[in-house]
Amino acid sequence: xxxxxxxxxxxxxxxxxxxxxxxxxxxxxxxxxxxxxxxxxxxxxxxxxxxxxxxxxxxxxxxxxxxxxxxxxxxxxxxxxxxxxxxxxxxxxxxxxxxxxxxxxxxxxxxxxxxxxxxxxxxxxxxxxxxxxxxxxxxxxxxxxxxxxxxxxxxxxxxxxxxxxxxxxxxxxxxxxxxxxxxxxxxxxxxx
Length: 192
Fold this sequence. Notes:
The protein is of the alpha+beta class. The chain contains 4 helices and 6 strands, in the order ββαβαβββαα. The protein has one domain (50-191). It has helices at residues 27-45, 69-72, 161-182, 185-191; strands spanning 8-12, 17-21, 50-61, 88-98, 105-117, 142-157. α1 packs antiparallel against α3 (161-182).
């Protein structure tokens, strides 16, 4: 199910619901839409428990011609430089986080995908029926990066929407903290 503009939608499976969007404005409207959709599923499907709640954010780093990816990322994420022409690289780190209220231990997978080509999605993610924003479609073929942050909790969780929303907000706060730790002052100045 996607909206008429093909910017947001839900994917329903036998054991999952996914809300995805290519039009992320802010976390408040995003989480509100997610909770609204989830409330409808809970109302009609009536599951007794949830077993996983997660958020996955993709942030494009598409430098202008005179810039480099490294200007946008903290030095710890620059990767190995052999002095050769880079084609692609992936850096991945996994962390345990403290979140609340339903499940106290979260897991965050942080990936930096760097590639030489048109801007796109990570290889394991296909936006089912969604269109990218115009500024992200038909981009020039050049080096860019995708900051890919996946933060989730697993375990038996109540279907109480207020507690689910608090868990999602807790997950989001750690994603925001991680993002701020990955990008440089140059990037923050450029994007804000």
